[in-house]
Amino acid sequence: MKKISIIITLFIFFGNLFFQSCKKKDDNINSQTPTTGVSIPKIATSFDSVQNITTTFQYDINGRIISEYTSDSVHLEYSYHNDSVFIKSYNSQNFLYQESKLALNSENLVESGIIFSFSSKQVYPSFEWPPGTFNFNSKATVDTLIVHFKYDNGFLVKQAEYNFSGSYYYLLDTCYYENDNIVFDELHVLPSNKYVTYYTTDFSLKNTIGYQNIGISFFGKQSKNLVIKKITNDTDTINISYIFDSQGRVIKEIHTGSYINTYEFTYTN
């Protein structure tokens, strides 16, 4: 499933869809091995014909993701607050080029948010959350987007990315699930691009590489099982096979067809 701009790099290794019920407190916990007993991928590596990229994930003691570093020096940092999650994205020069402030609903799922994109290394805007007074330096170039999310039975079924005034969207993605697995999604991207992807699932294969497996529960449930085929716009077909360890966890995901790629996963425990 394709994601909005703040999430594209975040889930680059997790194409097969996927906190606690109590409210979260503000915290800045140093990275530690999660004590939840859940098998969480520690490292994911992508191999294709162009380059190999390794992403390393770090978690707090509750198993929540707090940082993500790639071998090309791009990284993301996460912080958790009452009713919100903040994500900061840095490029290879360690420049903060994007900051996302995501509001949680009563079920601790992301309901809406604001994405700030910065194009100046020296100048930053000051802002408040929830959206209030914005004090932009006149020399700063800032692009601001509004995002909204909708869930059905805990699954993320619709996401939209709008301009700041909310008058039109840049991206609209609608997903459909059956038996706790994604069936197809329909993605609209301005000005007139439309992508419809159908998914074939193997119900005997457990999904161990979804959102929740990498410490991200605030985007809802992940598909229960693994996708073995994706067909987009009736033309692009990707076949997917897997290799598992002795515990039934995915350690290699192999894509063939319209797009050839291999992903490898190393777990924390």
What does this structure look like?
Helices cover 1% and strands 51% of the residues. The protein is built from one helix and 16 strands. The protein has a 16-stranded antiparallel β-barrel with strand order 1-2-3-4-5-6-7-8-9-10-11-12-13-14-15-16. Strand 1 and strand 2 form a beta hairpin. The protein starts with a helix and ends with a strand. Mean pLDDT is 78; it is low at 1-38 and 121-139.
Query: What is the 3D shape?
Result: globular
Radius of gyration: 18 Å
Q: Give the biggest beta sheet.
A: 16 strands, antiparallel, barrel
Q: What is the CATH class designation?
A: Mainly Beta
List segments where confidence is low: pLDDT < 50 over at least 5 consecutive residues: 1-38, 121-139
Per CATH, the architecture is Beta Barrel
Distance between the termini: 27 Å
The number of helical segments is 1
Strand content: over 45%
Mean pLDDT: 78
Main β-sheet, spatial strand arrangement: 1-2-3-4-5-6-7-8-9-10-11-12-13-14-15-16
The residue fraction in helices comes out at: under 10%
